[in-house]
Amino acid sequence: MKTDVSSSDTATLDAIVLAGTDDNPRRMIQGQNKAFLEIGGRSLVERAVSALLAAESIGQVFVVGPVERLQQALGPRGGRVSLVPQVGKMLANAWEAIHASEAQSGQDDPLRPLLFISSDLPLVSAAAIDDFVRRCRREDALREKPYAMLAGVAEEASLLPYYPS
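RE: above sequence
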């Protein structure tokens, strides 16, 4: 069992926001990509990116999707946000963002953790992101070999108190 905690356990990690669409009409809402739907005057992708930027556990943020629309929705964000052009369906877009993250960081370590997040999570918060990353690191610290993937899943009943009235 792994008992030591290395400095990488507290280092920031890159986040990848999946905001692309393959222009499949079945995946759109009222004819548009869900990432650009607005709640309270802010697009869902802007809400996700803002939460990631406020999270202590996150360094760089890579947003993959239609770049022109992303530029309009996100505006200037500075050096921590990189826009990655979509190349196809979700898996191809994810790989494109992974390659962009590797190129920018200069690391191609297959064990380097990345956080993937969908752009259509209107209630995501920096605190929830940091809590999830902390829990994942705790799980990995208990193992000899880190997990290849950890997924956050919540039961609907546990989310009901957070639903808008």
